[in-house]
Write a structure and sequence with these properties.
alpha/beta, TIM Barrel, 7 strands, about 35% helix, about 10% strand, globular, disordered C terminus
C-alpha cells in the first residue's frame, strides 16, 4: 500500500454556514474527508471551531477570502477591495478585473489576509495549509502575498489548484466554460510563486466543483495516478445551506458521495492512503 497514491480530501468553506459545517464533519466522521479549510470571515466561524476542536484527526487550514463576504480589517482599511456596501466583490472575475486595472492595493490585501490567518491562529488552531475562496490566492500579486504570509506564519503547504485536463472533461460541452476556467486557473498557477512552495503533486475537483456526486467522484478517483500525493477539493454540506442563487452547489449529494461505503471500498481497493498535508510541526 505504501506505493499507492496519497489522497488529501479537503472540504472547502468550513465556517460559511452551520449547514455546511455539519456536512463537512459528517464527511470526516463517516467518510473520506481528511482536512478542511476554515473561513475566518465566515458567519459560522465559531461553530466551525467548536466542531474542529472535537476532532483532532481533522486537519484545518485557512480558506483565504477576498470575495463575497466582509473583511475582518473593516471597509476603511480595505477600500480598494470592497464595494459601497462594505463587502468584497461578489466573484473572482470582478476582483481580477480590478487587479488588472491596477485598482487593488497589495498592502490592503496583505493586511486583510494576515488578519484572517491570525484570527485562526489565535483560536488555537494549528494551521495545516492555506488555500483561497474561489482560488483568489493564485491571482497575480495576491499569490506573492500568500507565499510570503505562509512563510511568516510557518505554514508549510499551500494549495496549487492546477488540474490536468482529462478526457472525461471533454465529454459534455455544457461544461465547456468550466474547462476554460480551469485552463485560465492553470495559467495563473504556472506564473505564480506558489509552484515553488510545498504542495501536493496533483490537484483534482475544480471541474466537478459543486457537483461531486457519487458517479462523478468515482470518475475522478478512477482517473487518479497510481502514486504521488493528490489533493481532492470537495464541498459537502446540507441542503438547508442558503448561498447566493448562482452557486447551485449540490451540498448534500457531495456529502453522500464522500460518506458512501462504495466509494470507501473503491479507495481501499486501489490502495489509496487517506492523508492530510504535513502539519506545521513537520511530518
Amino acid at each position: 500500500m505504501s506505493g499507492g497514491v496519497k489522497l488529501i480530501v479537503n472540504a472547502d468553506d468550513f465556517g460559511i454556514s452551520e449547514a455546511v459545517n455539519r456536512g463537512i464533519v459528517e464527511a470526516h466522521d463517516h467518510g473520506i474527508v481528511t482536512s478542511t479549510s476554515v473561513m475566518a470571515t465566515g458567519p459560522a466561524f465559531e461553530h466551525a471551531l467548536e466542531l474542529a476542536r472535537l476532532r483532532p484527526s481533522l486537519a484545518v487550514g485557512v480558506h483565504l477570502v477576498l470575495t463575497e463576504q466582509r473583511p475582518l480589517s473593516g471597509a476603511a482599511a480595505t477600500a480598494s477591495l470592497v464595494r459601497s456596501d462594505g463587502t468584497f466583490e461578489p466573484h473572482l472575475k470582478q476582483l481580477l478585473a480590478k487587479r488588472l486595472r491596477g485598482l487593488v492595493s497589495m498592502q490592503e490585501v496583505r493586511r486583510e489576509l494576515d488578519a484572517q490567518i491570525r484570527r485562526v491562529r489565535s483560536a488555537g488552531i494549528a494551521i495545516n495549509h492555506l488555500d483561497g475562496h474561489q482560488h483568489v490566492h493564485v491571482l497575480p500579486g495576491v499569490a506573492q502575498v500568500v507565499a510570503e504570509l505562509a512563510e511568516a506564519h510557518g505554514v508549510r503547504a499551500v494549495r496549487y489548484p492546477a488540474e490536468r485536463l482529462r478526457g472525461y472533461m471533454l465529454r459534455n460541452m455544457k461544461h465547456g466554460g468550466r474547462v476554460a476556467e480551469q485552463m485560465a486557473l492553470n495559467l495563473f498557477c504556472a506564473a505564480s510563486p506558489l509552484k515553488r512552495l510545498r504542495r501536493s503533486d496533483g490537484f483534482v475537483g475544480f471541474y466537478f466543483g459543486g457537483r461531486l456526486d457519487e458517479a462523478n467522484l468515482e470518475t475522478v478517483l478512477a482517473g487518479l495516478p497510481k502514486r504521488g500525493t493528490v489533493e481532492l477539493m470537495c464541498h459537502p454540506g446540507h441542503e438547508d445551506m442558503q448561498p447566493r442563487a448562482d452557486w447551485q452547489y449540490a451540498w448534500a449529494a457531495e456529502r453522500d458521495a464522500l460518506t458512501s461505503p462504495r466509494i470507501r471500498a473503491l479507495v481501499l481497493a486501489r490502495g489509496m492512503q487517506l492523508v492530510s498535508h504535513p502539519n506545521v510541526r513537520g511530518e
